[in-house]
Give the backbone structure.
Amino acid sequence: MNKLDAQRQKEIQQAEELLFAGPQALGFAKGLFQGHFVADWVMPYPRIPAAQQTELDETLTGLCKFLDEDLDPAEIDRQADIPRGVIDGLGRIGVLGMTAPKEYGGRGFSQMANCKVLEEIGRRCASTSVFVNAHHSIGIRALLLFGTHEQKQKWLPKLSTGQQLGAFALTEKEAGSDAANVQMQARPSEDGSHFILNGEKRYITNAAIAHELTVMARTPVPGSDKTAITAFLVTPDMPGFEMLEARMPKMGIRGTATGRFALRDVKVPKENILGPPGKGLKVALTVLDFGRTTFGACCTGAAKTCLDLAVQHANTRKQFNKTLGNFDLVKKKIARMAADAYAMESMTTVTASLIDRGLEDYMLETAMLKVFTTERLWECINDVFQIYGGSAYFVDLPLERMLRDARINQIGEGANEVLTSFIALVGMRGPGMEFKEIYDTMMKPSRDRMSKAWAAGKNRLGATIRVPDVPVQSEQLRGHARQLGRLIWRFNFAVNRVLITYREPILDMQIVQERIANAAMDLFASTCVLSRQDSEIQFARRNGDAAAPDRAAADLFLRQSFRRIRSSLAGLTDNDDKALLAAANSCLAKPPS
């Protein structure tokens, strides 16, 4: 290994603290990077238990009726406000406390069921889905996961019913995608009874309407001159809480109350610390895992709306004496939307099931879901926009609003570029550590190191020579399953080659990281689609041909996904990266005109 200077070592240490703070078990996504197919994480395709499915169906019936009768997305966009009546209605139905335990006033639903609810809201109104996500999936979620019994008893009953609203306050001027760069300070009082908070937060959804905010601030580390991030429960009635901007004007999701506030010597009781002191970053990253899952559900709903609108227009709009649906380039867009919507729903369901099963590490899967679904939704909206042509540009159709609303998805809850690097670096850490064991043993042999290096080498060699088995029950899917297994093998080989070729500098090589992450995301998406198709075919076999699934969209997605994976891996050795970076550097070096 090349000798790194002190600053470089510090950067690596900080990156590891941020990226690898969680458990390091071999989950499905991490397994892909090591050439493994961890089948029991994704197969059989998860289903909501029958008893809860009945309750969910009843809830969805009532919710859809309420949304169709009382929710006006265009008016919410025009007025830049979600009416209190809508919020109260969502509270009555139980949407605002869907996964909270019944003992605290919630519905006690699973994350899978919650995602089905968010999908229906996402089909209709992005502002409302973002509001619900901010309140429930990241707002009160921190309290559900890290709160004490006393904190839950105090806050959850009113938050779960919508009598009170929650918000999650992480973002600052210097802490956006760089979540570890929080600057808000919290110093303990002399008697230790409370903390005094100072600083500003911005771009906080629900800030101006929340009754409880989970706020991240820096606290001193006892016995050290360092600080660490701690989560606090803050209420807007605390002296020194100042709302600087209640509703920041913005391009899309205008119905949400996105605010900016300051805390000036705000005294927060020590009892309001959420989770262990100094572990606020873990609180934040864990909560965002849940938020990204429901993010996927909302995007799935919007993608289905795009598909419905595209099909409707293609079947009715005539040009050149035939309907648009007779033109191949229109068919291409519709087919792509159908394939992507199917994959988005499949990924969301599988990822939500990992949470419901209590598996310990799903941060890679949630990051993949967030990037994949937000990018695909943007493409879906662009395609349906193009099918409608000039009419889509005007406000009497929902498409221009949907386009404005969708753009934030690639930025919020972790910018896609940051998450793309996150996926690649976290995924490659496992095989990277195994290579390090082998290298260290070669440089400084010892009995202990020899044992570890032997285990690492055995694992690396096994993954290199063995194509993983992708078990499916349906004969008609075995060709796709074999292709997927071979692509996982090729992906593992490519990861090994990247690590051996670049070593530590890979931490900065974001274009290479992007190709690795894109291939990994398509492998995960393809797995979810294959698992779902296998389950649906088996279900149809048991229940007769009438229940046979439409395989066209899934088949198309798998074919296109496999092609993208091959392209991503080929790009690791056949690319224009040097020319690209040279062109960018040339532009950046020019003085401003």
In short: The chain is about 60% helix and 10% strand.
